[in-house]
Design goal:
GO terms for molecular function: oxidoreductase activity. Keywords: Oxidoreductase. It comes from Pseudonocardia alni subsp. carboxydivorans. The chain has twelve helices and eleven strands. The strands form two sheets. Strands 1, 2, 3, 4, 5, 6, 9, 10 and 11 form a nine-stranded parallel beta sheet that branches. The protein has a two-stranded parallel sheet with strand order 7-8. By secondary structure, it is α/β, with parallel strands linked by helices. The radius of gyration is 18 Å and the shape is globular. It has a single domain, classed as TIM Barrel (Alpha-Beta Barrel). Helix 11 crosses helix 12. Strand 5, helix 4 and strand 6 form a beta-alpha-beta unit.
């Protein structure tokens, strides 16, 4: 069983998703929705989004292994797969240590979790792992369909594809602000990057591996860093930035459209879909 994500998806926090929005996203021509945050193990939201659409793929970005036992998520996976075969991708990951008091030995914990998913019949191609650093990226390649990196750049995508070779899935998230005023776009995008991510060790470490200095990561992030992590400008400029991931070797890229106060993103998604040349977006 292989889930077809297509080329372009939408990443949105679970609190901002609804069946109606998913139906609208599908109509615009996007081919996948990623449920952001740490959705609960019953996966009820994923099921409702699939119920409201006909071909849209739905993925979790991500189920946190510290919050949801493997047995619970496996049961939910099989329920959804039976109802909507080939349309759900289970994204799982370890989150970050600052958020979880029980965060110990994350690599070993993820291996044990994946082992249990194997025992419970969750197929390798039906799951993906959040990964940034080399060890986790290798685990994602070897024990799942591939990786769903968060808060990365096309340079990370390129190095991951070089590491993976052909075959394994690379499906990065990239933040988007549709505003061609750089100062206004940074004012909207910077808080989303700064809190919590620039205060979290795993994200800081990954950005430093990509060549960013400590000074770029402090005090809300340098303008250059924010510009790298938050695509902004006209719809065409943003579409070009998303396509850099595909040119660098990604199979799929999902846009997290940032709007003031988590406002309805459909207008911005329509403009972006048109710039990407999707479906009925025009």
């Amino acid at each position: 069983m292989t889930v077809s994500l297509g080329r372009y998806g939408v990443w949105r926090h679970e609190t901002g998703l609804s069946p109606d929005l998913a139906a609208g996203i599908e109509k615009l021509g996007f081919t996948a929705v990623w449920i952001g945050g740490s959705p609960p193990g019953d996966l009820a939201l994923a099921e409702s989004l699939l119920d409201a659409t006909t071909s849209l793929a739905v993925a979790t970005g991500i189920v946190n292994i510290w919050a949801t036992p493997a047995d619970e998520v496996a049961e939910s996976f099989h329920r959804i797969e039976k109802k909507h075969p080939g349309r759900f991708l289970l994204g799982i990951g370890v989150g970050h240590p600052e958020a979880t008091s029980d965060y110990t030995r994350p690599y070993a914990a993820l291996v044990a979790y994946v082992d249990r998913l194997d025992e419970l019949g969750v197929p390798v191609q039906g799951r993906a792992l959040a990964a940034l650093g080399p060890k986790m990226l290798d685990l994602a390649r070897d024990r799942s369909a591939g990786t769903h990196p968060y808060l990365t750049t096309p340079e990370h995508t390129r190095s991951t594809r070089e590491r993976y070779g052909a075959g394994a899935l690379i499906a990065p998230e990239h933040k988007v602000v549709l505003d061609d005023d750089p100062e206004a776009a940074r004012a909207l995008g910077r808080p989303v990057v700064e809190k919590p991510y620039l205060g979290l060790v795993n994200y800081r470490s990954n950005l430093k591996r990509l060549g960013w200095a400590e000074s770029d990561l402090d005090d809300g992030g340098s303008d250059a860093l924010i510009d790298a992590l938050v695509a902004h400008g006209t719809p065409e400029q943003v579409a070009a930035r998303l396509n850099e991931h595909l040119d660098a070797g990604a199979d799929h890229v999902c846009a997290q459209v940032i709007t003031p106060g988590m406002a309805d993103p459909e207008g911005d998604l329509r403009r972006l879909a048109s710039a990407l040349g999707l479906g009925t977006a025009g």
